[in-house]
Design goal:
The protein is built from eleven helices and five strands. With about 270 residues, it is an alpha+beta fold. It folds into two domains: about 80 residues, Glutaredoxin, CATH 3.40.30.10; about 150 residues, no CATH class.
Length: about 270
């Protein structure tokens, strides 16, 4: 009896599929799992998680970070990709596109060159544009962002606050107002984002869309997302260094001015 035949026999067990199915979002991976089970003529219980509360409760109960999840009796097979591997079939891949990211950063670069804004100005334009795309559908962004952002997974309001924070950073880079606050903010958001992306992609091996250009984007979570956060870190550090250097130079100038002896006016006496 072959390994494949063994796998087919196991489907006589009770098969349960848990997937996200809400009015505003139908999980595409759950639909793919349904299609694969139907293709294999396997009877299964289709458990739809119809609210965020149900999804979070399910994840907490089974200690998983994503849905869908498939069970054969009490044995958890995993998600759609795991199910495809179980049946030795090629899993469908997500439809990814880097076009939105390339278009946004190219436009930001052209604007900064045309307006002679420099590197800091480019960062300001890019962050402002990214924030505007997120704000177009805040609910969708927060939902997508929560799938991989570590802070949002613990403090949910952060997901909806993030685009506003990003917009403030963009305006800070453009205006030059409060450079210390802008630099620190860029470092914090960039570092937390980089850690979240690294964990999701390289440790948890999740295949997700990046919410960086909005919740409905097809841009993949991966190298580009990590690079975006790395740029924020570098720009934040650069801004802090520039501000510190400027303050130091200013203090030094003031000190030299204070130490410079006061010159008496030159009085010239002329004979009649």
């Amino acid at each position: 009896m072959t390994a494949t035949q063994n796998k087919e026999l196991k489907t006589d067990q009770t098969v349960r599929l848990y997937r996200m199915s809400m009015p505003e979002h139908e999980c595409p991976w759950g639909v793919r799992a349904v299609n694969l089970l139907n293709e294999k003529d396997i009877e299964f219980e289709d458990h739809k998680l119809t609210s965020k509360e149900e999804v979070e409760a399910f994840k907490g109960k089974h200690n998983v970070s994503t849905t869908p999840q498939i069970f054969f009796d009490d044995d958890r097979i995993g998600g759609y990709t795991d199910l495809a591997d179980y049946f030795d079939v090629d899993a469908e891949k997500a439809e990814y596109s880097y076009t939105p990211v390339v278009a946004l950063f190219s436009t930001a670069a052209l604007i900064s060159v045309a307006a002679s804004l420099g590197t800091s100005g480019f960062m300001g334009v890019a962050l402002s544009m990214l924030a505007s795309l997120k704000l177009m559908d805040l609910e969708s962004f927060a939902e997508s962002f929560e799938k991989y952002d570590l802070i949002t997974q613990r403090v949910k309001p952060y997901g909806k606050a993030f685009p506003f924070l990003e917009l403030l950073l963009g305006l800070g880079f453009l205006s030059g107002v409060a450079p210390i606050v802008t630099g620190v903010g860029s470092l914090v958001l960039g570092t937390s984002g980089a850690v979240s992306v690294f964990k999701a992609v390289y440790i948890d091996k999740l295949e997700l869309n990046c919410a960086c250009v909005g919740g409905n984007s097809s841009a993949p979570l991966g190298v580009v997302s990590f690079l975006e956060n790395a740029i924020m870190i570098v720009m934040g550090a650069t801004l802090l260094f520039s501000a510190a250097t400027s303050d130091t130079a200013k203090l030094e100038t003031e000190r030299e001015t204070a130490l410079e002896p006061e010159r008496s006016p030159l009085v010239v006496f002329m004979d009649d």
